[in-house]
Specification:
Elements (H helix, E strand, L loop, with lengths): L3 E5 L3 H13 L3 E5 L2 H9 L5 E4 L5 H14 L5 E4 L6 E2 L5 E4 L4 H13 L5
Parallel strand pairs: 1-2, 1-3, 3-4, 4-6
Antiparallel strand pairs: 5-6
């Protein structure tokens, strides 16, 4: 069964391209274009990972990451950063990566969530 990712970003072309690439990698993807849509889908779905694009304001991304952690503490959050990979943040389950590291970061984050037998 493929992992279900909630992918969010404000640039519709970039969001569509990234989600198409993720589907090609075998992921199932639900898209959200703003914070309200992310929260609505999060509260009404069961996602394996939440992916937040750098096209969303940083304050919104961090607030959404905290909402995810509060609603579903085991769900990893990946923040795509224009400035490259900044590593794991002090907050639970939040990882930052550059756009070219998304697929690798998703694999690592999902493996951590699922445990060593899931890989």
């Amino acid at each position: 069964m493929p992992f279900l990712i909630l992918s969010a970003g404000r640039d519709p072309d970039l969001l569509k391209a990234r989600n198409t690439a993720l589907v090609a990698q075998g992921y199932k993807v639900a898209a959200a274009s703003d914070s309200f849509e992310v929260v609505d889908k999060l509260l009404n779905g069961d996602f394996d990972l939440v992916l937040l694009c750098h096209t969303m304001p940083d304050e919104d991304r961090r607030r959404l990451a905290r909402i995810v952690a509060g609603h579903s503490p085991s769900t990893p959050v990946v923040l795509i950063s224009k400035n490259g990979c900044e590593g794991i943040l002090a907050e639970a389950g939040i990882v930052q990566c550059s756009p070219d590291q998304v697929v690798t970061t998703l694999g690592v984050s999902l493996a951590r969530r699922s445990g060593p037998c899931a890989a």
